[in-house]
Amino acid sequence: MRNFLASARFLASAKFLSACAAATIFAGTSAHADQPVEWETTFQAPATDMMRQIEWFGNYTMWFIVPITILVLLLLAYCIVRFRASANPVPSNTSHNTLIEVIWTVGPVVVLLCLAIPSFQLLTAQYTPPEEAKLTVKATGNQWNWDYEYQTDNTLAFNSAILQDGDRAAAGKEDRKAYPRLLAVDNELVVPVNTMTRVLVTATDVIHSFAMPSFGIKIDAVPGRTNETWFKAEKEGLYYGQCSQLCGKDHAFMPIAIRVVSDAQFKTWLAAAKTNLPGANKTLMAEVDGQNKVAAAGN
Ligand SMILES: [Cu+2]
C-alpha cells in the first residue's frame, strides 16, 4: 500500500509532469527516430506501414476489451448486491433461460469474428511482402551480439555489439539521447529509406529474437534454421530494438540498432564500409548528426 501511495504521489508530482514534457519535447524535435522513453505506455511511433497496422489493431481491440470488462464488472456488482443472502433469502430455482443462453453464445461468437478477421488479415500481411526485396541482409544472433551480412555484389559482413561506456568518446557517441545506454551499439545496421528490405534471421548458439518495435518486426533467430522477415522504413533515423528471446546471462545486453538513411548516403556508406567500416560509420554519423543538429535548432 505504501508503495502504491508512493507511486501515486510520484504520478501527481511535478517530476512526472516534467518527465512527460521532456519526453514530448524530445519526441517532437528529435530527428533520431525511435527508442523507448520513460513511462511509456503505448507503442513507439510506427516507422513502417506494418507497424501502423499493428497499432491500429491494438487500438481496435481495446474497443472490445474495455466495454466487455465494464459490462462484466457491472453484472458482477449487480449480482453481488441484488442477490446477496440477506436481501434474497429464497434463491430462485431457474436453471435454463433460452434467450439468455442464445445471447451469451452468439454475442461472444460475433466478438470473436470481429477480432479474428482483421487479426488473420494482419498476420497474412506480415508474411506477404508487397513487393520483391531490393536489399537482403542476414542477421545472425550470437551470445551476446549480432552479425550482419549484406547480400550485395561484394558481401559486407560485420559484428554489432553493445556500446561500452568506455568506447563512447572514441566512437563519437557521447550524446546519450541519440545513443542511449544499453541500446546503442558499436556498428549499426544501415539501410536505405523507403526500400523493401528482407532480413534473414538465424543464430549460431541458442535461440535469439530479432525485434524492432517501430518497424513492427519480431522473429526468432534459431540455430540451423533461417527465418525471414521484411520491412520498409518510411522515415530516416536511428531505431532501437533488443534481442527478445531469453538467451543467457547477457540477453539484456545485445541491442539492435538500425540506421535508416537516404539512398545516396547508403550507397556511399556501403562502398566505403567494404574497405573501412569504422571510417564509413564515422563519415555517415558526421553527416546525419550534423543534419540533426540543424533540424533541432529549428533551421
Ligand atoms: Cu539473444
From TrEMBL:
EC number: 7.1.1.9
Reaction(s) catalysed by this chain's protein: 4 Fe(II)-[cytochrome c] + O2 + 8 H(+)(in) = 4 Fe(III)-[cytochrome c] + 2 H2O + 4 H(+)(out)
Cellular localisation: Cell membrane; Membrane
Cofactor: Cu cation
Annotated ranges, domain Cytochrome oxidase subunit II transmembrane region profile: 35-130
Function recorded in the entry: Subunits I and II form the functional core of the enzyme complex. Electrons originating in cytochrome c are transferred via heme a and Cu(A) to the binuclear center formed by heme a3 and Cu(B).
Family according to the record: Belongs to the cytochrome c oxidase subunit 2 family.
Name the UniProt record assigns to this protein: Cytochrome c oxidase subunit 2
Organism of derivation: Mesorhizobium salmacidum
